[in-house]
């Protein structure tokens, strides 16, 4: 079988839709991961025993179980309980929650260093707890944790490909459907690979900028 | 510690060892003209736009003990690192027993094998000891002889024990570096350099990470090497009394070149250069 | 739950495939990781750049896309082999592991003190001798724990091999679900199995850490120090 440019042109729009869904899913899941991760880190810091135990349990669970298993679980079990949720929100929430656990570890790491540095200053200024978190700790945490968090967002983006297993039309799913429909696999999979690769470049660029600034 | 008779026995061995290698050196192609053990010719070195060495000329005779002194940042460490091929000069040439460590006869770069053969005649001891922490003392000493010189293990162990005895640490052969004091580690590092039977030994501030008492035991070892063997020493140190005792010649560094050199007596009692005087005043005051 | 357990032999077979694939990709990724990681630190800029590009291009399209490409698109390229599903899975995941592992190896080597490189050079060791006898053994103390974490992830990566028809535990679980319709039980058992596998893998790497030369050296120093302090305290009493 040889490379067929006409076929490439024909399938580009469908792949474009896949790219769009990939971006949407990545963005939405990242928002959950970054926000929930922050909430978990704060909760953990406020409640050293229960909060920490809860986050640890959460982390251990996701460290040991593939996201694919969690995806299938939610996808097949929720309807049995009488809740019908479309595949896209399920995919977004599962990936978001899994990565929230990882992100909370990153936030926690930066929070520990900041608290060490600023503890005395916050005490000396008699800041209210809310003000302290809102105006000082959270912005600093976000700033310090940014490179590591971006790395997780990149991993999350790469992992969105598995959502095709529950029928989310991400780029991988579109390529798969096209291949199946036309019995031509070379072009869709090669193109999908190339597009995924290209979509990494902005992440890699920003990460290298972070590294330069750090060095 | 060891008795005096033991010392002289071991050092006898040491000087024999150096004699042997000197004979090999004498058979080298440039044997006829006066040979320096190490020779810097118009060597310059820059890091980016920062020029650290400026047209440096420095020669050391076989067996000569030369000490470099000078203010911090004047380029002393850089000289030793260049001699050890840990860095390459920007311009100029460096020769070890007449052979360039940079170029072959056709002025081309050396092959790895050529470079390794020449650099083997140099050994170096570092400020931070740089012992291999995952190996025992004995393993530290026999690693290079067995891999580089391809000695048998028994042979390497035998000669390693001789040098361990010389630095007074034969009972530490099975210890790991982390189990030793700083002074003991540095003595092991000296032994590790000596088992390779170098003809030139480079010592870079080997006591400046040590407390005074520990520094003393390390300097004792160097004194013995200096007085009783024929290895050339190129020493960088801030210990002025020690420099005065062991050196045949002292070279004063300032801003990347030698501003004055001569026998220790002269440098310490009648320095000619104004900056030498101020430098010596500042260190001797402490 | 009972219904699911009746399929235990099928499940065991699937689990065995997962363990086997995991083992192959973890072991298979090691040489590539060491080589790519060492090349990342080469003095030659072109070599450094090439290895960076190789690493990033393996990681970029995610293992799943790469797996489909190798399984379905590669055989269509003239002169390219048609790999069996399990071979394709092992090759792709091992490659991916090598790319992620290379960063761990690089960081481990960079963490070795500069003076160790200088000492190797001053003793006349060649680059290869210094790397294999001095630098790598020390770097392993950082690399092995990092690799342990990666290995746990790699076990989870194997879940995707069921897509191209490898009959691993994931594949078998989907089959059992089709037979019993006991979705909750099937996926709880499946999650527990993966979780156990990753825990076991973590324990094995923890054990491996104890054997590393630098860890052994540091441990024996600590023991000795404890002994001397005991002696001191005894003599004080
Ligand atoms: N790898 C390097 N990159 C950039 N600059 C360097 C490097 N090594 C040395 N330098 C610079 O070269 C100068 C001379 O350094 P060198 O270490 O030779 O001085 P020194 O005489 O040994 O000083 P000290 O007594 O403090 O050890 C210093 O200004 C130092 O900052
Ligand atoms: Mg110095």
Q: How is this structure best described in words?
A:
The complex is a heterotrimer of chains A (215), B (286) and C (237). With 215 residues, chain A is mostly helical. Chain A has a domain at 23-169: MetI-like fold. Chain A starts with a helix and ends with a helix. Chain A has 7 helices and no strands. The mean pLDDT of chain A is 88. Chain B has a single domain (34-284), classed as Rossmann fold (3-Layer(aba) Sandwich), CATH 3.40.50.300. Chain B has helices at residues 4-26, 76-83, 112-119, 137-147, 153-166, 182-194, 212-228, 240-246, 264-269, 274-284; strands at residues 38-47, 50-60, 65-69, 91-96, 99-100, 122-125, 200-204, 232-236, 249-254, 257-262. Chain B has a 6-stranded mixed sheet with strand order 6-7-8-3-9-10, sandwiched between helices. Chain B has a 4-stranded antiparallel sheet with strand order 2-1-4-5, with helices on one face. In chain B, strand 4 (91-96) and strand 5 (99-100) form a beta hairpin. In chain B, helix 4 (137-147) runs parallel beside helix 6 (182-194), helix 5 (153-166) packs across helix 6 and helix 6 packs parallel to helix 7 (212-228). Chain B is globular and about 55 Å long. The model of chain B is unreliable at 1-32 (pLDDT under 50). With 237 residues, chain C is mostly helical. Chain C is 83% helix and 0% strand. Chain C has helices spanning 2-5, 8-40, 45-59, 62-73, 85-111, 114-122, 127-157, 169-180, 183-211, 213-236. In chain C, helix 2 (8-40) crosses helix 5 (85-111) and helix 4 packs antiparallel against helix 5. Mean pLDDT of chain C is 90; it is low at 231-237. Adenosine-5'-triphosphate binds at residues 47, 50, 52, 72-78 of chain B. Adenosine-5'-triphosphate is lined by residues 47, 50, 52, 72-78 of chain B.
Describe the protein's topology:
The complex is a heterotrimer of chains A (215), B (286) and C (237).
Chain A: H1 5-46, H2 50-64, H3 67-80, H4 87-124, H5 129-159, H6 171-182, H7 186-214
Helix pairs in contact in A: 1-2, 1-4, 1-5, 1-6, 1-7, 2-4, 3-4, 4-5, 5-7, 6-7
Chain B: H1 4-26, E1 38-47, E2 50-60, E3 65-69, H2 76-83, E4 91-96, E5 99-100, H3 112-119, E6 122-125, H4 137-147, H5 153-166, H6 182-194, E7 200-204, H7 212-228, E8 232-236, H8 240-246, E9 249-254, E10 257-262, H9 264-269, H10 274-284
Parallel strand pairs in B: 3-8, 3-9, 6-7, 7-8
Antiparallel strand pairs in B: 1-2, 1-4, 4-5, 9-10
Chain C: H1 2-5, H2 8-40, H3 45-59, H4 62-73, H5 85-111, H6 114-122, H7 127-157, H8 169-180, H9 183-211, H10 213-236
Helix pairs in contact in C: 2-3, 2-5, 2-8, 3-5, 4-5, 5-7, 6-7, 7-9, 8-9
The structure holds adenosine-5'-triphosphate and magnesium ion.
